[in-house]
Design goal:
There is one protein chain. The protein is an alpha+beta fold. The protein folds into 2 domains: 4-231, no CATH class; 233-333, no CATH class. The chain has 12 helices and 14 strands. Strands 1-2-6-7-8-9-10 form a 7-stranded mixed β-sheet, with helices on one face. It has a 3-stranded antiparallel β-sheet with strand order 5-4-11. Helix 2 (72-85) packs across helix 4 (111-125), helix 5 runs antiparallel to helix 7 and helix 11 (411-417) packs across helix 12 (424-465). 23% of the residues are buried.
Length: 466
């Protein structure tokens, strides 16, 4: 009887109230390897510029066989992740103790880089994971994992609560075959060392109790379907590679076209002289027959190819909903036109923001649940996350908008319009502090001037009395 199922959303589901055994984990690993890993590897290869055209059967030796890879998969991922989270996420709290702890935690774990890589891997694979652990100094640490090596199993309740996670990786031997995989099963209470055979059979090893009150593995999904950002355009990218390669083949064909000579017979020595000197001179043989010299040409499909390539490029950006920021007219667009060009990508980014905020809430729930850190475990509910789009800004235009908003909205709202202000509340605090310091300085100058005036007046009075 199967205990674990895998749906079209790439979600592993376990029936409720079942103990976690080696057999159940084996089911999950086999489903993972049989149903998902091939797609993950395909996406990873596309991002790494190894596209399917490179693995196609070679043409005959005498035919041009260009294999061009136009890596729009990488372009789409890098453009979108740079736009969505190129400016690091700001995490704030009204509780100074919580705020100080979060800043220290983020600095110690280099969270800006971790979050960027997490977002990028989710774009490539459709989802990715954060793994919380304790280092040798008993400090809480976090790292990201890709779904080629990790999976999470949820229960089949309406809440779809995570039950356990598996992390494993097969190592290749010198002859290219896979050896045993080693990894671990992570539950809400313990970490179990495992060994995985090539057939996917799992064997349990040592068990270690962890200190977290929840499963210390958090999944970030790109969308509910767990589709990578270029999944919908993979066939278009492959078609573009093929079209560009065939166009390059045509260029090679015309560069190496066959020379035809009709009306005279050439000796081998004559052929060699023509090839080497690139000069030939023929005349008629007296019977009135003309000598014809030219190149063999195949039908020219240049216009058709160009139209197809243009269509594929436009379709790739339209369907992926990621803007082609390298287009010639992109940099010359006005503010309103630029906003329209980025509208589709901004919609994607907003959806990704919500998925990341949900993942961050689960992350800090686990982190705040670590004993002896002195933070209320429910403090994660009060954290605020600010996502800032990484786009060119017209600060002059923004400042004019702020001026026009005087008397209509609060100062904090006005400051939020300015892209140079990362945290409006902190900026207001700094502004108030500067104003207080300036007021004190003005008061001191006033008192000094009054003291000086009184001293001068007293001196003048003394002189008049004398």
């Amino acid at each position: 009887m199967a205990h674990i199922s895998l749906n079209k959303r790439k979600r592993f589901t376990l029936i409720q109230d079942v103990d976690i055994t080696a057999e159940i984990v084996s089911e999950a690993v086999k489903l993972h390897r049989d149903k998902l890993v091939k797609t993950y590897n395909e996406n990873e290869n596309m991002y790494m510029s190894h596209h399917s055209i490179l693995d196609e059967q070679a043409k005959e030796r005498w035919k041009p066989d260009n294999r061009l890879v136009i890596n729009y998969a990488k372009y789409i991922v890098d453009t979108f992740v740079g736009y969505q989270i190129g400016i690091p996420v700001t995490v704030t709290s009204d509780d100074e103790k919580v705020k100080e702890f979060v800043n220290d935690f983020r600095s110690r774990n280099d969270m800006e880089d971790t979050e960027f890589e997490l977002a990028k891997q989710a774009d490539v694979f459709g989802h990715a994971f954060l793994y919380v652990y304790q280092d040798e100094e008993a400090q809480t640490c976090v790292t990201y994992e890709v779904p080629t090596h990790m999976l999470i199993v949820y229960d089949n309740s309406i809440q779809e609560r995570p039950v356990f996670a598996v992390r494993y990786a097969f190592l290749e031997t010198e002859n290219g075959t896979e050896s045993l995989a080693y990894g671990e099963v992570i539950t809400k209470d313990e970490v179990i060392a495992i060994t995985v055979s090539q057939a996917g059979t799992v064997t349990f090893g040592e068990r270690t109790t962890h200190i977290y009150n929840d499963l210390p593995v958090i999944e970030l999904i790109e969308n509910e379907e767990r589709q990578g950002i270029f999944d919908s355009v993979k066939t278009l990218i492959n078609a573009l590679n093929k079209s560009a390669s065939e166009k390059a083949n045509d260029v090679d064909y015309f560069a190496d076209a066959y020379l035809k000579i009709i009306g005279t017979e050439l000796e081998s020595e004559d052929v060699m002289n023509i090839r080497d000197s690139r000069i030939f001179n023929f005349w008629t043989n007296g019977d009135g027959q003309q000598v014809e010299v030219g190149f063999l040409e195949k039908p020219n499909a240049d216009t058709t190819q160009e139209n197809l390539i243009t269509l594929l490029k436009e379709s790739i950006f339209s369907i992926s909903m990621v803007a082609n920021i390298s287009a010639e007219d992109f940099g010359n667009a006005s503010g309103t036109a630029l906003a329209y060009k980025l509208q589709a990508m901004d919609n994607l980014a907003k959806m990704k923001d919500r998925k990341m905020q949900s993942a961050f809430n689960r992350l800090y729930k686990v982190v705040f649940g670590v004993p002896k850190i002195g933070i209320n475990p429910d403090s994660y509910k009060d954290l605020r996350y600010q996502f800032t789009r990484n786009v060119p800004r017209n600060v002059l235009e923004e400042s004019q908008i702020v001026t026009q908003l005087n008397g209509q909205v609060s100062n904090e709202t006005k400051l939020s319009v300015l892209s140079i202000v990362q945290n409006p509340s902190e900026e207001l605090e700094r502004l108030q502090k500067e104003q207080d310091e300036e007021a004190k300085a003005n008061q001191k100058r006033f008192e000094d001037m009054r003291f000086s005036d009184e001293a001068l007046k007293e001196t003048a009075e003394n002189e008049s009395e004398e």
